[in-house]
Every structure is written in C-alpha cells, then in structure tokens.
Write a structure and sequence with these properties.
Structural class: mainly alpha
CATH class of the largest domain: Mainly Alpha
CATH topology of the largest domain: Arc Repressor Mutant, subunit A
Largest sheet: none
Oligomer: single chain
Distance between the termini: 63 Å
C-alpha cells in the first residue's frame, strides 16, 4: 500500500484507517506531518537537540501505542501535543528534579502583580521569548499551550495531569511571573 495517496486525507480519517484496518504503515504519514512541530516543542522545553530528538521518537512511540484510544474529542495535533508536553515535563521533573509546587514556593512573586490588566500579546516579543527561558518549564508549557497552541483549560489540565482549576491557577501565576519579570526588565531599560 502506497502511503503517498493518503497524504491528503485528514488526521481523523487516517487514524480510523490505521486502527480499523490495522495498517500501521500509515502512521508514517502522521509522523511526517507532525515530526517537526513535536521536535520544536520538545526542544523549546528540553533545550537540547539530542534530548529533543530522542524525546520526539519516544513521543511518537507513545502516540502510536495509544492511537486506538484516540477519541477525537480534540484535534489529533492537540492530542499529540499533550503527549509531547507530558513527556517533556515528566522528563524534566524526573531528571532535573523540577517539582513545580516546590519551585513555585521558592520563587514567590510579590503580591502587587496584577496580571489582569496586561495582555501578553502586546508586549515586546523578543523580550518575552528571553523571559520565557527564566520561568519554570511547566509555566512555559502552560503559556505556550494556551497562547500558541490555543488549547482549552480542560485540555491543558489533561495534558499536565492536573485539574482544570489547578491549570487556571498555574496559568494565572505564570502570566503574573512573566509580567513581573517583564516589568523588572523594562524598568531597568528606562
């Protein structure tokens, strides 16, 4: 069977064919579609090309193993990115001992930060990218999932294996931390 003729089929239809016909070779089409994006997301969190390549292979292996369980409640890309974020965050938690609640308590924010008035999209993009590297990888993942990947809070909670309300609180804290760092950095530039 020639996978080339399946390249124009949508993700969900392709998954149905893979699962119902047990045509595992067609998973390569999904792999080709999303490899680069998963690699980039992995690299943005892991900061190592070698680790990102290894993580990407493991993420696609996990996705393949779980493919029959894909329900279509979210787009395949969102589902795959959730696996990617989970994998990378778990890796960082285990290998680098980055337990978010402990890290957060050690990096408390001043109570005066009010992130409700600020829109992150109106801030200097290059500076925001620089500051994203200073926050916890889980906070970075939350911000990227919400503002770059446009995932719902429910999907973010599921991806990080936390409740939706915990995801909302952590996103609020991540925004506040970014704004605090932004204000500190720009205050020194004026």
């Amino acid at each position: 069977m020639n996978p080339q003729k399946y390249k124009l089929i949508g993700d969900e239809d392709l998954i149905k064919i893979i699962v119902t016909e047990k045509n595992n070779d067609l998973f390569g089409v999904l792999y080709e579609r999303y490899y680069r994006k998963v690699l980039d997301k992995s690299y943005s969190l892991l900061k190592s090309r070698d680790l990102a390549v290894e993580a990407t292979q493991n993420i696609f292996s996990k996705a393949f193993e779980k493919l029959a369980g894909y329900k279509g409640n979210a787009s395949f890309s969102s589902w795959l990115y959730s696996i990617a974020y989970n994998y990378c965050i778990d890796f960082l938690r285990l290998k680098k001992q980055l337990h978010y609640p402990e890290w957060n308590s050690q990096n408390e924010l001043p109570e005066i930060i009010d992130e409700t008035d600020e829109d992150l999209t109106n801030l200097d993009y290059e500076l925001l990218l620089e500051l994203m590297e200073l926050i916890h990888p889980e906070e970075k993942a939350l911000i990227v999932m919400k503002y770059n990947d446009d995932l719902s809070m429910k999907q973010i909670g599921e991806a990080l294996r936390i409740t939706e309300s915990a995801a909302k609180m952590r996103l609020k804290r991540a925004r506040a931390r970014l704004l605090f760092l932004y204000q500190e950095k720009t205050k020194n530039l004026i």
